Amino acid sequence: MSLHAPYPQGRPRRLRRDDFTRNLVREHRVTAHDLIYPVFVQDGQRRRDAVASMPGVERLSLDLLLPVAEQCVALGIPVMALFPVIDASLKTPDGREAWNPEGLVPRVVRELKKRFPQLGVMTDVALDPFTSHGQDGLLDETGYIMNDETVEVLVKQALTQAQAGVDIVAPSDMMDGRIGAIRSALEERRLIHTRIMAYSAKYASAFYGPFRDAVGSASNLGKSNKKVYQMDPGNTDEALREVAMDIAEGADMVMVKPGMPYLDIVRRVKDEFHVPTFAYQVSGEYAMLKAAAQNGWLDHDAVMLESLLGFKRAGADGVLTYFAIDAAKLLRS
What we know:
Layout: H1 19-25, E1 35-42, E2 48-50, E3 58-61, H2 62-75, E4 79-85, H3 104-115, E5 120-125, E6 138-139, E7 145-146, H4 148-164, E8 168-171, H5 178-188, E9 195-202, H6 209-215, H7 218-221, H8 237-249, E10 253-257, H9 263-273, E11 277-281, H10 283-294, H11 300-314, E12 318-321, H12 324-332
Parallel strand pairs: 1-3, 1-4, 1-12, 4-5, 5-8, 8-9, 9-10, 10-11, 11-12
Antiparallel strand pairs: 2-3, 6-7
Helix pairs in contact: 3-4, 4-5, 8-9
């Protein structure tokens, strides 16, 4: 820590006196370019279903999603992240719909890239929206989530998405070795421009509830949990090991999830590896802020922007947030 002039020679408040000085010396800023907008897409036409536990968030059919993509482009939001809501009739124990080249996700990717080539599109690589049991992987006869067998089908899913033209595949499953397997498969097929954003430090968190409501996996999962593959919330050194493995296996970017309760992890990852690092402001975080604002307990816009600034201050290069549209509008004004 460098020495500073003692009071009264040093008066820190001089640099807080007015707007222009505060703007001049501000260390961190949030811009629309820092934001990734997660959206929920479903089959059909003119379908718009509110997610009760996430005020302002909707499941949209592709025709209604297209204007949202256009809005992202206009606001300067660089990437939209797709999360599918799959009809129950298509869910199976092995989640085979996940690698159907004519499935919902590949069709949406193709249409988005055709209409908005300048908008980055990111897709989730995990089986939970597609499995009848709601887990991210394949189960053995005891109900344990198998690792290597799951990785084999995740590779199929990632290749299907990449061949549809997606810009970024984002494995969120937390299976060991899946980044290396996906990277090798992409290279073998000369899909060399497909980026991988690895959910490297994804914790077995209680903050995911509203998301599972949104994609329809909550009822399938029931009373089960994901603790045998997602990380223990009490661990920090383990996060660094996970990130190191994913970088070594070919990840272009890494992610910490959830966000605000894990800002210490974001800071440690950024300080240790100096790679593009992202955080996911998850559904539970969004729902809490929305509920408090609706009750008049917090100033909606102020806490939204302050929370996003907190990610940047902690070292995140970008944030996945359901606030992206609202934040980008405010940041533009």
